[in-house]
Amino acid sequence: MSRVAIRCTHGFCIIGQGGGELESACGDPTCLDRANTLREAARAARLDLPAKADPLRWVREYDARQSGALQHLLMHVASPFDVVAFHEHTGAFRDAWREAGFDSVSVSNRPATSPPPEGSMHFIAECVEWRDAYPWRIPLATAHPDCHPAAIAAPNTARPRLCRHLRDGTMRAALIHACWVLGAADRVAMEQPPSFLAHALGAPEVKTTLAEFGVPLRKRWWWWLRGLQPVPPSGSLAGEQRSTHHECDHLPQELRSISRAVTPPLFAAAHVKGWAPTLRAALVSEPVSYTHLTLPTKRIV
């Protein structure tokens, strides 16, 4: 049975084993009640959080984790996409672009949490490997690289963690990957929470929050943009917003990280609406062409 560990508002760690009774040095019964609620909600949510080793879930989802599978899949099922959503298992931007009339694909190292609609696909693959094998230009890409190596989290732990990541090479790898992302397509929007990457890449073009787009959650988003303009807020919410950062603290590290990296559909739709005119104009003036390999152009679903 999995061990549960949830930190209450008084700083105590509430612990338990699987579905057993929770224990804590905190004497406030409200904290135990809240911890039980969070545990049950997270247990239910975990059913939708895909681990890297999980099997395929949907039609139009393709597994490229085995050696040689990626090239084969791109030869037989892919055709030029208007938009690629890198590092996206939620399908939020993929589906928003499809709703706006563009052919879209999401690429992530795990299965998707939602089924790709007709005209879209999801590939389970490492993003760099997928891009290297994909033979066409990419007119526009959104990307959500792993934020852990460079994230500015709690002020009292941010600098020690940065020093550790500089020493072990993870910060260097994160910076190299961020540079790769910004060159992976003709137009790019790369998202991170507040990040030390700004010291190397320069300040992001946009610093925004979910609340500025009508989502009642407390989360900050930084956008690095290439070939795109900032999208103005579309419905700011006043007052204190709810944070979900610690609601899945007791999940395994892999699932805990992705539980905090959910993109609300409303937020994605607002940005797609803002960037869609630029993409439409680009597709008219710059038709998608091959970048290297010659592969079939007819998609087989």
Protein traits:
301 residues, alpha/beta, Rossmann fold, two-stranded antiparallel sheet, 9 helices, globular, disordered C terminus
How does this model look, in words?
The chain has helices at residues 29-45, 69-76, 92-99, 127-133, 155-168, 170-182, 198-201, 253-259, 265-285, and strands at 3-7, 13-17, 61-63, 83-86, 104-108, 120-124, 140-143, 188-192, 206-209, 220-226. The protein is of the alpha/beta class and 301 residues long. The chain folds into two domains: 3-48, no CATH class; 61-231 and 263-285, Rossmann fold, CATH 3.40.50. It has an eight-stranded mixed β-sheet, sandwiched between helices. Helix 3 (92-99) links the parallel strand 4 and strand 5 (104-108). Helix 3 packs across helix 9 (265-285). The longest helix has 21 residues, at 265-285. It is globular.
CATH architecture of the largest domain: 3-Layer(aba) Sandwich
Arithmetic mean pLDDT: 81
What kind of sheet is the major sheet?
8 strands, mixed
Helix content: 25-40%
Tally of structural domains? 2
Please name the CATH topology of the largest domain.
Answer: Rossmann fold
Order of strands across the biggest sheet? Answer: 3-6-5-4-7-8-10-9
* SSE series: EEHEHEHEEHEHHEHEEHH
Unreliable segments of 5+ consecutive residues: 1-5, 292-301
For the termini, the CA-CA separation is 41 Å
Beta-strand content estimate: 15-25%
Number of helices: 9
Per DSSP E runs of 2 or more residues, the count of β-strands stands at 10
So what's the overall shape?
A: globular
